[in-house]
Hints:
Number of strands: 2
Radius of gyration: 23 Å
Number of helices: 19
Structural class: mainly alpha
Amino acid sequence: MYWRGPVVAIALPALIGMIADPLLSLVDTIFVGKLGASELASLGACTSIFHLAFNTFKATTSVTTSLVSGAIAKEGEDSFTAKVVTLTSLQFATVAGVIVLVLMNLLASPALRAMGISTESNLFHSAIVYLKIRIMAAPAVLAITVCEGAFRGRGDTRTPLLASALAAISNLVLDPLLMFGPTLTFFLSAPLKLRFGIGGAATATAASQYIAAIVYLICLKKKNMLPSNKRAHKNRKEKLVIVKKIIIANGAMLLRQLSLLMLWAFATARAVRIGYEHVAAHQVSLSYWLIFALLLDAPAVAAQVITNRILFSDNIREDIRSLSTTSYDFTENLKANDRQYIFISFLKFIISRGALLAMTATLSILSIPKLLPSFYDSFSNDPLVVGQLKKIIPILGAQQVLVGLCLCIEGILSGAGKFTQLAMFTNISAALSFIFIKRSSDISEIWTKGINGFFLLRFLTGCLGVLKICRFLGQGSSKGKVNNQFKKEI
Length: 490
């Protein structure tokens, strides 16, 4: 039980904070659902496009976390490398955000057509309005992904919690105000109607994401997490080495994330072609599923940070103890010089707790609709959409243990710096899952065969990667020291 302190200190704030992002989507889904089934279906297609456009760069969170954590393990809390990683990644993310903003404005109509919404479709007008407004937040969203990783790498998940909470609260307030708000009358001017419908939902979400980005930037400066201009100028050669490492790691993880998101987009496109009730139900299910998926990702965040410290720190006991908020010296229970023993001890703990949390998620998903009779009606008043939802929700509940174990295993591999390996595993899993989704005839088959198969393949391949780490650590332990070749390998 001695791993509880550092895991809870990292995972609990991360768990609460990560709920905010899917809550933004869920809040939009609930309010847009009040406008009608067509608007809800439009939101479903747009959400998948945003998942592809924004979350392709979500990999930078994982990469930044590992690089910052590894630098601190080697150089200490005031690590110059960690500061350069943060600043450089933030600069790349901002430029990428501007590029995404410009491209999505130019390619909005083709993107919607790729999702099955043509210009003649009755879904097109509401979809194009939502898409073009919300994409304005692209620079903020991509900057957030880097900032979140920088704080996680330092074992600080409270700052991301603060930024996410403020974003969620802002969206909750702005959504109904801008969608269904009152008419404002000013002296000697025409009345202003704050009733922008689906455009109001997009504006509220974009504004809340800029609020989160501003909070992050203030905290970065306040906590001295960015390098000074003078020192950065004196260490140009060192900075170039760091930039090269950032590009290689992000390149591998971006390819991984792209294949992952293309699978989700393909699932949505398939649902659009099956029928509007299927894609509307898919949108609701995805928003609902993401809340629990990110809850299950909280132990994976702890797994990534702690695994990184175990593998790279020269003083494992002190480094891990610094991550815990408790005064109890749990590291006395660890064998100081046996890195393999410490790693396996942590592996057993994080897997067991991840599975326990996943079982709790399963019970929650299956129980909520029974405890709240109006649960399904709160998302849509269309009986066909509700009918499809009643088929999918039990499937979501049943898959939570698989999802939770998969995320924990991948968190460990990410903490070990196995970015290329992770990319290969995910690409293979996605390629096989595309086949199952293409052959699906309704939304329940998409989730049962395609999505479940995807996570099962990722879990099995991830286990192979963890076993390889254990073997390398064993080779190092047999010599009474850490195997230097292992450090190079990861």
